[in-house]
């Protein structure tokens, strides 16, 4: 098993919670924002799904430009979108070789740092956990009180 | 340098953001909650500070009972509280030997898992990032729009 594949359970222990929270948001609430300057619920979830897939693609290809790749979706339902990008992200992570994971990537233009593929995958997960933390507040504000733990065992 | 000391910059890259967010919350807003069932701003920040210190103590001692340790504070200001627990947590992490970091700890009673000290420190950081993600929404709801990145470089 590659080192990147060993990272998969870690990714899924958080992504499964993201999916559960997303599934609680009714389509009538997709435009909900806690404040005027916040991302809407739909924009927030979409940003999380796109970002992890883009980060994983950068680790696979070594090319930082996927950071600003615009992904076009026909899915309008957040759970369907989450399923699609979770599958794409799993496939991409599975394809990352140990050499690609250890490769240094120059993310200066976008993040102000150079880092290895492994560090970038970790940053991708931290990014997901951060925004999932936002999402918990959104979902509670939408009236849900029966919420999962922040990480699945 | 011990392996636990190498973890310190990682801890501080998130804790510094926690401190910056906490400093934006005026004492008149300490009881603010986004919803009736949410933790108040003060309870949330205090929970983050106590939890990381407790997790680090468990890794140091190998004794999971610090998970439910009740910490008593005389500080009423969140920034002072954050400084106090950041110092205590740094000291504790610095004192963790490589053997303690590799030791398996039975967290079954509290978390349903057994894990190494290293894994528990990582969980402590994920816990901080998750609640910091909550805190970003709180602080934005309190009227702040000039917010830091979720992680300090």
UniProtKB/TrEMBL annotation, chains A, B:
<dbReference type="InterPro" id="IPR007837">
    <property type="entry name" value="DinB"/>
</dbReference>
<protein>
    <submittedName>
        <fullName>Damage-inducible protein DinB</fullName>
    </submittedName>
</protein>
<dbReference type="Pfam" id="PF05163">
    <property type="entry name" value="DinB"/>
</dbReference>
<keyword id="KW-0479">Metal-binding</keyword>
<dbReference type="InterPro" id="IPR034660">
    <property type="entry name" value="DinB/YfiT-like"/>
</dbReference>
<comment type="similarity">
    <text>Belongs to the DinB family.</text>
</comment>
């Amino acid at each position: 098993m590659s080192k990147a594949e060993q990272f998969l359970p870690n990714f899924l222990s958080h992504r499964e919670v993201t999916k559960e929270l997303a599934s609680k948001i009714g389509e009538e609430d997709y435009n909900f924002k806690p404040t005027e300057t916040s991302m809407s619920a739909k924009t927030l979830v979409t940003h999380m799904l796109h970002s992890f897939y883009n980060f994983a693609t950068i680790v696979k290809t070594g090319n930082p430009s996927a950071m600003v790749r615009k992904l076009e979706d026909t899915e309008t339902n957040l759970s369907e979108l989450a399923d699609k990008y979770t599958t794409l992200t799993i496939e991409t992570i599975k394809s990352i070789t140990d050499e690609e994971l250890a490769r240094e990537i120059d993310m200066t233009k976008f993040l102000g740092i150079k880092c290895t593929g492994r560090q970038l995958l970790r940053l991708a997960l931290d990014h997901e956990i951060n925004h999932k933390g936002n999402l918990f507040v959104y979902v509670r504000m939408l009236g849900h009180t029966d919420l999962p733990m922040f990480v699945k065992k």
